[in-house]
Structures are given as C-alpha cells and as structure tokens.
Amino acid sequence: MKTCFITKHYKEPNQEIFDENGLTLLPGKTCSATKDLIRFTEVRALFDCDRSAGTMVLNNWIDFFDEVKIIEDKKDWSGVGWLINAGQVIPSKIRNKYKTLDTVDLTNGTETINFTNNDTDTLPWMQSFDNMELTLNEDVKKYQDANRHIDIKMYYSTVLKSALNFLYAGNTEKVCALPDDCKTVWVPASGTLAYQLWRQNPKIKVIIYDINPLQIEFARWLNARTTPPKKLQVRKYVRNLSSILGLEVENLQDWEDINPDLWSEWIKQPTEYRSLDLFTQSIPTNEYVYCSNICSWMPCYHRWGWQYINDWKNKHTKQTLHPLQMTDRSRSFGVY
Fold it and tell me: Across-strand partners of 5?
C-alpha cells in the first residue's frame, strides 16, 4: 500500500543568490499552506492529465496512491510512505522512477513541480464560482513556467467545467447484477441505466439522482418516451438543448440500443428523481447505490478531499454497486 503524506507547515529549501558579493546562501523560510494549496496538492496526488480524447483535462485517476494523509509537518511523518509538502506536484516521470518504492521523501523540491499559496489563491474553490469564466484567461497568464502554467490551467478548467452546463449523453454504463435483497436502488441519470437495472427485478424502487439538474431533465425526457429512444432521437434532442443553453455535450456518439421488452411497463413506474450531491447523503442500510465514476472523478475530490470520500465509501461499502468501477464516463465531463 502506498500512502502520500502532505505537510501543512514546512521549510522552503535554502536559496543560492549570486550578486556583486558572490554567492550568498539564504535560509529557506517556514511556510504554512492555505487550505486551497493543501487541497490542490491532495487532488494532484490522485489525478493527472487525460489526453486520450485529444483534450487536456485533469480528470485521469492515477491509481498510484492508496491513501492521502494531511499532517502538520515533517516531524509527524513516521518515515514510511511518500512525503511531499503542500504545493508539490509529483510528475509522472518521478512516479515511474520510484514506483517500486514504498518510501520516498520529495520535500527538497528538486524533483517536483512546486507551487505556493499565491499560485492557488485564484483557483475556483467550490464556495466561489462567481465570475470564474471572466478571470480564467487572465489568471493563468501570471505563470511563466510552462509546466506550472499548464498544471494550474488544467486544474482550473476541470473544476470550472464541472460547475457549468455539461451533459453526459452516452448510454454505455456497465450493467451490474443486483443483490437478491435489493428493494431500492439509487441510479445516476446516465442514459437508460435505470431501466436496465430495474429490468432485472421490476419489483424494486428506482431513485434516479444527479448533481446536475440538466442531467435529471435529460433522464426525465428519456424515460418519458413511449419506446426506447434511438441514437438519432437522442442526438436531435441534445443538440437542440445545447444550441439553446450553450451546453458542452460528452459521449453523444456512445449510444447503444437496449432490450425494449419491458419498456412499456418501465415508463409507468413511479420513478423518483433527485438532484443532489451523493456525498451529502446517508444511504439507508436496506438500499443500494450505483456510483458510476463518482469515486474517481476529480471535481468530487476537489470539493470533499480524499479523507471525506474514503469515509463515505467505507460507510457504504456493502451498499455500493461497482465501487471504483472505471467506465467511459470516468474520463468525460458527464456529471455523476
């Protein structure tokens, strides 16, 4: 098991200054990281850039560290695990270099991309989304180093996009078997997934959830069709909606036809729709939840942090269907 430890308080490396008097060694100052810098560091330990779709978004679950722990300073480190200071980002080449080691101390900063409190003071933290779109381009101009510029811009853009009007229009979620004792199942508003799960046991209650109200409306439209919608119908609906609301649509091409044998019964069901953040919910012990990519989606960790999400997962382990299951949606901006 690999653990990443992040220090809140740390001493910067000594600086070598050359001037008319020659070489001067300036002792590094002691720093205390802001919660913004700490969260940025935590998320970057878990996610990297995804270039699979030809775009640069910071939503690629690295699956390198098993846990992330925030500690006060280096003296609280047991000496086992990977150690970085808040503000240090571990490049992929360094992960690969030391991938067989369980213990690595990178706090000297020579092998990491390093950020300060000032670098993250303009990031779009969940409490302040106002005017982000207007300031994005200006804010990223202040980073002169190419790696730092790209890193901040990717992080900024990924969180910004997740808060705006995005729609997942695919229909390729993997269908899992429902437990025998399942009476109620929570299902993300992803295509016809709710129908396909309900079809296994038409006696169960279905709750369709999503954090994005537009995704909920898309699910309502799908489940109100007298016959299962075909790809062309979905494309027409989504493109019309996109042209009106300025949506960015993901996975529109990924639409698979389904078995329609129980569809006429499905649309009569009293399906419940809830627009909510799943991590704010305590799922009753007799109910199950299909999590999709929620446990490996970068904006969730940006909002809640590793410890909160891990505690939520542990609490609901026996009720979770497809825990940490990576799907096509995991790499898109379709909301969970």
Answer: 69, 83
- The count of other CB atoms within 10 Å of the CB of residue 64 is 16
pLDDT, tens digit (0-9, with 9 covering 90-100), for 204-235: 999 999 988 888 999 999 999 999 988 888 88
Q: How far apart are CA 211 and CA 305, in angstroms?
A: 17
Q: Which domain holds residue 295?
A: 167-331
pLDDT exceeds cutoff 80 at 242: no
Instruction: Classify 59 as helix, strand or coil.
Output: strand
Q: Which of 86, 115, 144 is the last residue of a domain?
A: 115
Q: How many Å apart are CA 118 and CA 149, to the nearest integer?
A: 13
| Within a domain: 310 | yes
pLDDT the model gives residue 247:
61
Q: Are residues 173 and 318 in the same domain?
A: yes
Average per-residue pLDDT in the chain?
A: 82
The pLDDT, as a whole number, for residue 144 is 46
* One domain, residues 312 and 177: yes
Q: Does residue 268 surpass a pLDDT of 60?
A: yes
Say how many domains are in the chain. 2
Cβ 288 vs Cβ 194: under 8 Å: no
| Whether residues 110 and 15 fall in one domain | yes
pLDDT at position 173: 83
Global pTM value: 0.82
Co-location of 171 and 22 in the same domain: no
Same domain, 314 and 175: yes
Give the helix/strand (H/E) hosting 25: strand 22-26
Is residue 262 classed as helix, strand or coil in its secondary structure? coil
Question: What are 129-146's pLDDT values in tens digits?
Answer: 344 443 444 444 444 456
Distances (CA, A) of 235 to 110, 174, 231, 243, 256: 50, 21, 6, 12, 12
Closest to 327 (Cα-Cα) out of 199, 198, 171, 220? 171
Q: Is 174 a domain residue?
A: yes
Domain stop point among 115, 134, 158:
115
**113: Cβ contacts below 8 Å, ≥ 6 apart:** 88, 89, 91, 147, 148, 151
What is the three-class DSSP state of 327? coil
Rounded-to-integer distance, Cα 299 and Cα 156, Å: 10
